[in-house]
Write a structure and sequence with these properties.
With 285 residues, the chain is an alpha+beta fold. The chain folds into two domains: 66 residues, no CATH class; 196 residues, Gyrase A, domain 2 (2-Layer Sandwich). The chain contains six helices and eleven strands. The strands form three sheets. Strands 1, 4, 5, 6, 9 and 10 form a six-stranded antiparallel sheet that branches. It has a three-stranded antiparallel sheet with strand order 7-8-11. The protein has a two-stranded antiparallel sheet with strand order 2-3. The longest helix has 26 residues. The N terminus is likely disordered.
Length: 285
Amino acid sequence: MSEPIDAAIVQSALQAILEAAGRTSPPESPVELRQRTGRRGTTRVDPKLLLALAAVVMLVVGLFTAGAIHRSAHQPTTVHRGGSHTFSLRPLLCYAVPYTSLPSAISHPAPAPLICSAQSLLTAANIGVNTNSGIVTNPIPPDGQFAYNPTTPPAEDVAGTTVLLPQFTSAEGSVNRTTPAPTRFILGPADMTGADVATASVQHSQFTWNVLVRLTPIGSTHLDALAQQQFHAFIAIDLDGHVLSAPVIEPTQASFSSFGGEFQISGGFTEAQANAAATAIANSR
């Protein structure tokens, strides 16, 4: 929709141009001449008037153009509408031991609620990040109570729930293992989803393939809120019910700083994995 043009500006400019052309009002049209004299007639077009009218047209076009430039500078970022993939960032609460499936004839305990024991919680206080090196000084072992809990199926990987997810693996191997190679993770409800993603693209640097994710303005606030909550603790990057990566938030910084609406997923992608992940994230919900 076009922005309204200030009529006073156009009228003032028209009056100034007409005066410069030696007139104080527009000439009579053929219809006006016929009504006043009762006869048909022609009006000789004044060259100065043609120039004046051309100037008015240019003024109006200029005003429309200025409005269009003004509007384009304020257009919202175009984002995807969601697709067949699910993507989220979640707090990583604790590691879980591999699933133990016993024969049906053998009695075993019922699955435990997805609540980590106090000693297995991956809080900033428990893991003790060294900001000089960025290394976790107190590795926490997987929580053994979840041996009989099956992994959450991808169809049940719902943003608002706590889930038990496996580490991503493919024919090329796993991506971005976190210390002592846990294979399952207890994750809290998602704070950021694919709806917050604007773009996802592949980058190559120092012999590694990474995925750069840029967020919408709302997505940027969601990421910063999660990162500040998990400062010096872990978050998990969940794609289609698998953990792509589980980094510590800003381990070498003494205080939290904004991510500025983007983050990078790195740490072991092959080129094929990076391309597949970027495509899935860009088409996620």
